[in-house]
Amino acid sequence: MKKIIYRKFNIDILSYFLTSLIIMGLIVWTIQAVNYFDYVIEDGHGLSVYFFFTFFNLPKLIHRILPFIFFISLFYMILSYEIKNELSIIWTNGISKIKFANNIIALSIFLMFFQIIFGTFFSPLSQNKARNFLKDSNISFFSSLIKEKKFINISQGLTIFINKIKDDGTYSEIYLDDKVEASKTIYAKTGYIIYDENTKLFKLLDGKIINNEKSKINIFDFDEINYDLNKINSKTIIVPKLQEIDTISLLSCFNKKFKNKIDSFNCDTKTDEIKQEILKRIFKPIYIPVLAIMCCMLLVLSKNNANFNKFKNFLFLITFFIIVISETSLRFSTKSNISLSIYLSLPFIMIMLIPIAAPTSDDTSIIMGKLCHPNQAPSAASNLKSP
Fold first, then answer.
1. pLDDT value, residue 285
2. What is the DSSP letter of 121?
3. DSSP character for 233?
4. Phi/psi of residue 137, nearest 5 degrees
């Protein structure tokens, strides 16, 4: 019977947690995807590149919101069980609050290790994959970037000005300032784009090419030339960001044998940022069990207690404040050795302070002392069970 009760609660909490995580993740992902649409509008990438880039950024969002969603899910589920009198049924079946809380904490420890593995390996890998889609792509929507009577800096070293866009899709009075391979200016009276899967050309008609090489200016007339658009590189940042670097490479920055072999960034100039990223991936998930212990404090007061609503609201605010601390304290964790020590000890200090913050009625001190100090025996076995 006890196993069935534990299984039911675990299934309920995980179902609600996963559903909330997916829904909230998709909402945040959709909002962020709108911001990423600049890659199409301003940088000229195709819709397929945009889709894959936003899709592979979804794991990053899941990793960021997982602790908060777990807290909300667990807090809500315990309250739901209490309001529906399901907790009273659990107590009357001989399950102590300690064992029930230990089941919740065990579940949180499982999620903690999942968060560590997810943030250490999978999330950086998917973000790096997303960056590679931008790196390997060329400008697909070249024509959508062209604006009439405006200088358009399409890519590094190339500026285009078109005086008029005709109704048939051709252009007139075209100026290209090309410094991609050599310094030259191209003027053409008319032109149009040839664009398919294999060909990306800007066909220019009746114009001049002005070459400026070593302070010498050469002018050539032409009837027709093809400007290859495949050589145009986007202005999009293609160098991997710190959160996109795999964890092994970040850890190798602190090993003199390997740090000079990393080409994507300079280990010496980003020491603090690297430490913060490693702490975010490996250490910050330890706050998940802290959140679980805080939610377990809901077990110590019955809904019939006059202070239940006040305690519930107070507990929610305190736990939410812990989430805020876990995010903000990371920014200051690498300022000095003292700040690093404080950051590493902070979650354990919180666990030690939980019995002090707990209410004094309904065998709370014994329960919370048992949760935070498992080696300490309770004074009476009957106190571990609810009425």
1. 93
2. I
3. P
4. -90, 160
337, 345 contact by CB (below 8 A): no
Q: Distance between CA atoms of 312 and 219, rounded to whole angstroms?
A: 80
CA distance 285 to 279: 9
Dihedral of the CA atoms 140, 145, 148, 150 (nearest 10)? -130
- For 29-99, strand residue ranges (E) read none
**294-314 tens-digit pLDDT:** 999 998 888 888 888 888 999
Helix (H, G, I), strand (E, B) or coil at 74: helix
What integer pLDDT is reported at residue 290 of this predicted model? 93
84 CB burial (10 A radius; 0-12, 13-18, 19+) = exposed
Tell whether pTM > 0.85. no
Q: Tokens in use for 155?
A: 């890519």
pLDDT of residue 293: 92
Calpha distance 345→366 (Å, rounded): 24
Query: H or E element: which one contains 192?
Result: strand 184-195
**What one-letter code names the amino acid at 49?**
V
pLDDT at 377: 41
Side-by-side strand order, sheet with 216-228: 151-155, 158-165, 171-178, 184-195, 200-213, 216-228
Q: What pLDDT was estimated at residue 265?
A: 62
Q: Cα dihedral angle (239, 244, 249, 254), rounded to 10 degrees?
A: 90
Which regions of the chain are under pLDDT 50? 260, 361-368, 371, 373-387
Q: Give the model's pLDDT for residue 367.
A: 44
**Which pLDDT score, from 0 to 100, does residue 270 have?**
75
What is the rounded CA–CA span in Å between residue 133 and residue 374? Answer: 50
Token pair recorded at residue 365: 């001190």
How high is the pLDDT of residue 383? 38
Nearest-angstrom CA–CA distance, 352 and 316: 18
What backbone phi and psi angles, to 5 degrees, belong to 225?
A: -140, 160
Q: Which of 346, 344, 333 is nearest to 276 (CA)?
A: 333
296 and 104 in contact (C-beta within 8 Å)? yes
Closest CA to 134 of 241, 272, 210: 241
